[in-house]
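Now read these lines:
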Amino acid sequence: MEKKQNQEIGPRLLPLSFCFLMLALSGILFGIYTFRQISWLKTQIHLQQKVIGTLQSGNGAQRVEEASSNPGSETARVRRNAPDVCSCNGPPGPKGKRGKKGARGVIGFPGRRGPQGPPGPPGSATSESIHLVGDGRRLRNTRPLIYNWAVKHKKGSIKYHSDTGRIEVKKTGYYFIYSQMFYYDGTAFQMGHYTYVNQDKVLESLGSVVSDLRKYNTKYHGGVFLLRANDTLSVRIPYSKTYYMDREGSFFGAFLVHE
């Protein structure tokens, strides 16, 4: 009885065993296929990384072209297996934000000294100048024009007329004109003097008299003026009539600055 039952179970287990065997074979084949696909993907990823590294180097484009020209190279094989993609450039992106201002650089060394320039034009061949000083007397003058001068220095064609107290220039140009007077009068309410070019007043000095005991004072002025040939210069006093023609305290003159 038991032997008969075993004979009946045997044929039933045969199909079931066959199914299990087929399932096992399918699993083994699927595992082999999956392993090969994963290996292929790893190889492709590795090749792509090598291509990207080559492109990022300084001469990457040249290396890629050289590798592509070799049919057996890895780059050529990757290009053959890569899908078709668009290589055109897209529209430019938005403008980025302006970066921060960089640190100020180190000041460089001074440059070499340049060559010496050409010499300037020659100066005036003749110098025009005159300096008059007081004749040393204390005077009470009723005339406004001062003529008590003595020639201390004179050079060039410029002249001094002692009878009128006037300086006369003979050469046109720009002259520095100056004058100073030493006042010695405690009765006038003001002290001062003017310098004239011809009949035009060009310089002026004024001051107040403190008292009869404090009556000594000096006033100076000077400036540059364009003078024509035969122009005259003179010193005049409008208020005080008493003055000291000291050689160091009272003086008058002019000199040519440039033509």
